[in-house]
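Comment thread on ticket #2218

A.B. wrote:
> Attaching the input chain for the structure job we discussed in standup.
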Amino acid sequence: MSHGFFIFRFTTVEDRDRVLLQGPCVLNDAVLAMGPWTLEFHPAVASLPKCIVWLRLPDLPSTLWTPSALSLIVSKAGSLIRLDECTELLVKGRYTRVAVEID
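C.D. wrote:
> Ran it. Output below, let me know if you need it in another format.
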């Protein structure tokens, strides 16, 4: 396709649903926004209703680096999608980084 959009064809409906419902897809450390194709979709004029962004949370105590705590902390901005690798492994750095889906 074009304009930064890709089309994926699945062998079965079950495979398609698993990909769409399983959670975020990651390709080369980039989180992909995915949704079902419709007849009304035109890539030249399409806009995404939601966007996934990475948030940095500086100086957050590592006791709050759990998915449930981080989900609560970022809930005002959007829905927690993913923790970065250092956060998942509890590798202390200058900040915690999480992917959040926003409207």
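A.B. wrote:
> Thanks. Noting for the ticket: The first helix runs from residue 13 to 22.
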